[in-house]
Design a protein that fits this description.
globular, Nucleotidyltransferase, domain 5, 5-stranded mixed β-sheet, 8 helices, alpha/beta
Amino acid sequence: MSSRAEKQRALYERMLLFERQAWLEGFVCLAGLDEVGRGPLAGPVAAAACILDPDRPVYGLNDSKKLSAAVRDTLYDQIRTHALDWSVSLVDAATIDRINILEATCQAMRQAVAGLKRQPDLLLVDAVKLGGLPMAVRPIVRGDAQSVSIAAASILAKVTRDRLMLAYDRQYPAYGFASHKGYGTRAHYDALLSHGPCPLHRLSFLKNLDTHRRPDDPNA
């Protein structure tokens, strides 16, 4: 076994700590739950739920932010192939503006859980306190770097959202979504000042930016 493979196996074993504890407590079906996209100025917030198969480990799992895009893409395919069940949900910018980003994040998470074909008896969640669900919920601080189940969910959510932002870049090429995925980079702010927001932008995030009208506004 190569040194890299050994490190991946060792990391996987370390990141099974919370899963093993849950199994010892009598929980049987565990789902990891995570979100991406709370901070960007544009695009949806995405959440994913994932039930990994203990008999088919996916080595290399980690916090999606610590992985390259190429590694995330490979793991995304492996998770979808080997997981017992998974689901991804999106909540768009208009809804974020209407109900606020925290509520939109919780909505996306609940929708992701509802999208599972199997109902877990425990959710391992990355730090968010989530109510209104029929199963136990266990928030874990920095869970995407400490639980394989949450790490898998973070990768599913991240890759799904990034691919969507690439598609939006073709629809709205003036903003550079392909490079920054909607986050507030200098280039993104410059584009907003030059072109105003598009329908993907979260207007509630732009209150202090003098962008005025959307480019699709008939009054612009």
